[in-house]
Design goal:
Helix content is about 30%, strand content about 30%. It is α/β, with parallel strands linked by helices.
Length: about 375
């Protein structure tokens, strides 16, 4: 029996192969970002950013890392990506790429230039963050990142940065490739994508977040500003926390009060009144007192109702601004169609063919409850002597 087993093993061994996709480390580089833009000549440009390998000196020290960007062009995204090898001798490892930039030219014309590539390509990382480059080209943004001495993080920093912005400030809700594709194929909802610009106000180029691109029918048609993005945060984010509320002049002797949003929940429900479809929105928000600018002690039980009421009005105004912009652009970024389908499927079946005519005119009511919780901060204002 043992001889038979050994005979079978000897026959099978030549048929076994090693790793079918084995790649030597010296033949590969880590891709930190990949981006797509539409050039003036109608060609697609595919970009990949990586870190240039720097050899160590005899002392064991290494020079500062430097980012480099490789570009390929073609009539399709796949051809442009493969044409990068005309200029670059190494294979990109895409698994580490956590950001994707989409040029404004491409986003404003048709996102279908890249959606099929993203769905079919097995190297695409669906967890990568997506950003639209606003008032600049992808090349200009990547060049600005390449020149930064902070370069070892490069475009990967942008993904972490947008997470911090949403948590600390409460706007510019991040979106990943998988979520973008899902929103684009789901009836009754449209995606919104954070925008990145080049800021030269300080005399040098800096990468900055500014607004969120609104998509309709596979292309960007407008954007949300900072305040409207805060309203969108309360309605659509998966992170049910984060943000600041700055209340100006709440009472005499206090210039401003800063409250931190420690947690919230929101609900959207369709309501049918006769033949009229309405949308009811309710938001419950927990707040923490963060700081005040003034000499009057406003953080007291007697002033709790005042602060809660001011916070409620501010949240309500932000959400209202977001709804008005969405309806003005006629893009259902709020997911009202999807919500109607979930709770009133018969109604959705009737209005689905005419949703573009229905959505801009749907009335809504916004109910907000803000609760100021006891925090760890001092109960009294700083006293000058």
């Amino acid at each position: 029996m043992k001889q038979i087993l050994m005979f079978i093993i000897l026959i099978i061994m030549p048929l076994q192969c090693g790793c079918y996709n084995l790649l030597e480390i010296n033949d590969a580089v880590v891709a930190q970002n990949f981006s797509v833009d539409l050039l003036e000549n109608g060609q697609l440009a595919f970009y990949a950013q990586t870190t240039e390998p720097i050899p160590r000196t005899e002392t064991g020290e290494s020079a500062p890392t430097r980012n480099i960007t490789v570009m390929g062009t073609g009539t399709t995204a796949a051809q442009a990506a493969r044409n990068m090898f005309l200029y670059f001798p190494r294979i990109f490892l895409w698994i580490h790429s956590n950001t994707m930039f989409i040029g404004e030219n491409l986003a404003g014309q048709d996102l279908a230039y890249v959606t099929d590539f993203l769905i079919r390509n097995r190297n695409t990382r669906l967890q990568a963050y997506v950003f639209v480059i606003h008032e600049a080209t992808v090349k200009e943004v990547l060049d600005a990142l390449d020149e930064k001495q902070f370069g070892s993080c490069s475009a990967q920093c942008i993904g972490r940065q947008v997470e911090m912005i949403e948590k600390d400030l409460g706007y510019y809700v991040p979106i990943r490739i998988g979520e973008l594709l899902e929103d684009m194929v789901t009836p009754g909802i449209e995606p919104v994508i954070p925008q990145v610009v080049i800021d030269e106000a300080s005399g040098q180029e800096k990468i900055k977040f500014q607004g969120m691109a609104v998509v309709k029918n596979n292309k960007v048609i407008g954007s949300l500003d900072e305040v409207e993005s805060q309203g969108y945060h309360y309605l659509r984010t998966k992170r049910k926390e984060g943000g600041l509320l700055i209340i100006e002049n709440p009472m005499e002797g206090v210039d401003s009060v800063t409250l931190e949003v420690t947690g919230f929940s929101s609900k959207m429900r369709p309501e049918i009144q006769g033949d009229q479809l309405r949308m009811q929105l309710s938001i419950y928000c927990e707040l923490k007192f963060l700081e005040e600018a003034g000499t009057t002690n406003i953080y007291s039980p007697a002033n709790r109702d005042l602060l809660e009421d001011q916070a409620r009005l501010q949240i309500q105004a932000q959400v209202k601004d977001c709804i008005q912009k969405a309806q003005a652009l006629n893009s259902d970024i709020l997911g009202w169609g999807l919500t109607t389908w979930r709770y009133e499927p018969d109604v959705w079946d009737r209005v689905d063919p005419y949703w573009d005519q229905v959505f801009p005119h749907i009335p809504s009511s916004i109910e907000v409850k803000a609760v100021l919780r006891k925090g760890e901060m001092s109960d009294s204002v700083f006293q000058f002597q």
